[in-house]
Amino acid sequence: MTQPHRPDLTKDVASASASPAPSAAARSVLASDAEREAMVERLREATAEGRLTLEELAERSEAAYLARTREELASVGEDLPHVTAPPTAGSGQRSFRALVGDLVHQSPALEHGIEATAVLGDITLDLCSSPAPPTGELTIVAKALVGDVHLLLPEGVRVEMNCSKVFGDLRDLTRAHSGPESATPRVRVNGSAVFGDIIVAHPSSDRRSYWQKWLDERRGRA
């Protein structure tokens, strides 16, 4: 009796294992913070050019900050001309992000400035116990997109806010200082509030800080 033909399973397995696997280059590359920021800046430029509405700016900016891969990020502005390339060199600036959630951070280093970005969440940075920068000046880039950025500063600092807002709010709740301008630490807050708030205030407690020590030393030399 003739035996039925059996398939060569060994051959089939060998053929399956020999099929080419996806190359590493074909996988999606994760997007960097610099690339996300470059895309959001391009969206702002497109809005100023009349290509996007304010609602589209808010929606696309949110999508840009939430994009995980370069492919996802590119799709946010694929219908916009001349997407700006991201910067290649970093400035050493500390970055803090609250993406779809809240973030609280105390005493961050301030030497190279900081960046605070809130997207569908709130971020609170308490700078009262942070060592003052050697120059006595600090630049904060704050971006509130459907979220809030809260900055807690010590007494005796001078605040300069240079931020734009689109259906958002900018509030400087710090108390007036009495020291001379030349001997007063300066905090510059730049950025934008889109359907969110940027709030600068003093903490509720009356604690002493490195900033106040620095201020006392400067006033003592004056």
From TrEMBL:
Residues 1-11 have a biased composition (Basic and acidic residues). Residues 30-81 form the DUF1707 domain. This is DUF1707 and DUF2154 domain-containing protein. Pfam families: DUF1707 (PF08044), LiaF-like_C (PF09922). Transmembrane segments: none annotated. Residues 1-33 are annotated as: Disordered. Residues 114-179 form the Cell wall-active antibiotics response LiaF-like C-terminal domain. Residues 13-32 have a biased composition (Low complexity).
